[in-house]
Amino acid sequence: MTVDTASENIVAPVKPEIPFLQKWRSFGTGLGIEVCQENLKVCLTVVRPNGIRVVDAIEVLRYRQRPAAEWGAEFQAFLVKNKATHLSATVVLPNTDCVCRFIALPGVANQDLEAAVKYQLDGLHPFAEEDAMHSFGRLEAPRQAALSLGISRKAVIEDYATLFDEAGIAVRSFLTPAAAIYSALRVLQPPPGDQFLAVHEVELGLLVYGETPTHPIYCVAMSGNEDRAVSIASSQIRLGEEALISSLAGVLPVADRQATGTVLSYAASLTGALPGQGLALNLLPSDRRKTSSPWRWVPTIVLMVLLMLLGAAFAFYQDYENQKLLTKLDAEIARQQPRLSNVRLLDTQAAASQKKLDFLATYSRSPQQDLDSFRELTRIMPMNSYVGRMEITPNEVNFGGEIDQSMELLKMLDSSLYFKESEFLAAPSRSDKGKEIFQIRTKRESPSVAVQGVVKAAVPVAPNQGARQ
User: Fold this and answer.
1) Which of 118, 207, 266, 412 has the most CB atoms around it within 10 Å of its CB?
2) Are residues 262 and 378 located together in one domain of the fold?
3) b/e sequence 265-304, b meaning 16+ C-beta within 10 Å
4) Are residues 198 and 111 in the same domain?
C-alpha cells in the first residue's frame, strides 16, 4: 500500500445514496463545540434533506483564563445573532480527556449490554474503578454486534459540566471524537467505504480515524509526521491497500461552505442536528443534560392532536352510526311504501269480504236454528194440543192455540234447552169445546251440540208424537 499525505488523497464526495425515509426525516439544527486546550471552536449547522448549510462559526479564545460569564456572554451574543438561543450544544471532548474503545458483543440482547460492558470495563481504561464513568452506543448494520465505548474520569466530566453551567451554555451531550465523527459521516450520505482512514490535525498532533471489518470504529491521537501516523494506524486496523486515505474534512458530508478549523465542531453540529440517527453515546450525566429545542415538543404535540381527534371520533361515532342507520331505514321505508299501500288495500278488501262472509254465515245459521226451535216445540207440544198461530224471531217465539191444561205447557217449555222464561201474553180462556185458549211468549236459547245430544238421548221422541198446526 502506498502511503500518501492526507491532503494528497482528498477525493470529491459522491452524491448521497441513502434510504428515502432516512433522507426525508433529516431535519434539524445543530450547535457543535470542540473543546481544545486553549479555545472553544463553535459551529452552527442546519441540516435539510436537500443539503447542509453552515450558518456561522466562531472561536472562543482563552476560555480557561477568562471568567466564564465573560466568554459565556460572547457565546450568547453569537446565538442571538443567529437566532439560535433555544439550541443546546453538542460538545466534543479532547481526545486527551477521554478514551475511545470498541468491543464486540455478538448475540447479547440490548437489555444485557450494560452488564456485559461492565464485565469488560476494567481492562479498557487506565483510571481507577471508582473514578471512571462510561457510555456506549451500538454501531449500525452490518456491524451492530460491536459497540463504541467512551470512557472518562468523573472529575473531568464534572469540571466541564460546571464550566459550561457557569457560562450559561446549555449542553445536551458530551461526545468522544470517535462518536462525533462516526455519526457525522452518516448524515445525508453513506460511509466513505467498507474500510477507510481519515487524518485530522489537532493542537497536540494528529487525530487518526478509521473503519475496517476488524476495527469497526478506530480513533487515536498520534504525534509525529502524517506518513508515520497513517502507517501505524493502517497496520493496527489492517487497512487494505486500495482503501481510501483522506483528510477528515474530505470524508465528512459536504456543506454549502466549510468553516476553516472547525472540522470536529462541524461533526458535532451534524450529530446534534440529527441525534436520533447517531450513536447513543453521551458521557454527560442525565441529570445535567439540557434539551431546549422546540422540535422536541413536536412528537408530544402530534400525539396530543391525534388523541384529541380520536376522542372526538369516539364521541361522535355513535351519533354518526345512528344517523347512518336512520338514513338506511328511511330509504328502505320509502322503497317499501308502495308494497305497504298494496298490503293496506288488501287488508281493507279482506276485512270487507270477511264482514260479508260473517253476515252470510249468520244468515245461513238462522234457518237451521229456527228449524231446531220448531222441531223442539213440536216435540214438547202434546198430541191433544193445537197451535193456530206461531211467530219465530231471532230472540223469541210467540205462539197461540188450544190445549187441555195450559199451565203444564209453561213448565214443559222452561225445561227445554231451547227455551226459557216462558210466560202467557194473556190469561187463558175456555173455548166452546172446553179447552183452554192460550197465548205464550218464550225466549230462545242455542244449546251446545253435546248438551243437545245428552238431552235427546235422555228424552227420546215417541214415533207418533207431534203437534197440529
Assistant:
1) 266
2) no
3) bbbbbbbbbbbebbbebbbbeeeeeeeebeeeeeeeeeee
4) yes
292-304 pLDDT per residue, tens: 655 666 777 888 8
Summarised one tens digit per residue, pLDDT across range 313-346 is 888 888 888 888 899 999 988 888 898 888 889 9
Residue 340, domain extent: 306-345
Residues 186 and 291: beta-carbon distance below 8 Å: no
Cell of 142: 452490518
Q: How far apart are CA 226 and CA 198, in angstroms?
A: 11
pLDDT > 70: percent of the chain: 88
DSSP state of 277: G
Beta strand 89-92 pairing with 99-104: unpaired
Bridge-based pairing of strands 196-202 and 205-211 is antiparallel
Residue 367, preceding peptide bond in cis (omega within 30° of 0): no
Query: In this predicted model, which residue has the larger pLDDT, 165 or 403?
Result: 165
Asked, for residue 373, whether it belongs to a domain, the answer is yes
- Number of structural domains in the chain: 3
CATH number of the domain within which 448 lies: 3.30.1360.100
pLDDT at 310: 87
Residue 464 domain-assigned (yes or no): no
Cis peptide before 142, with omega less than 30 degrees from 0?
A: yes
Shared domain for 415 and 268, answered yes or no, is no
How far is the CA of 324 from the CAs of 295, 327, 328, in angstroms? 41, 5, 6
Claim to verify: residue 372 and residue 422 sit in the same structural domain? yes
**In the numeric block, which cell numbers belong to residue 250?**
474530505
49 touches 23 (CB < 8 A): yes
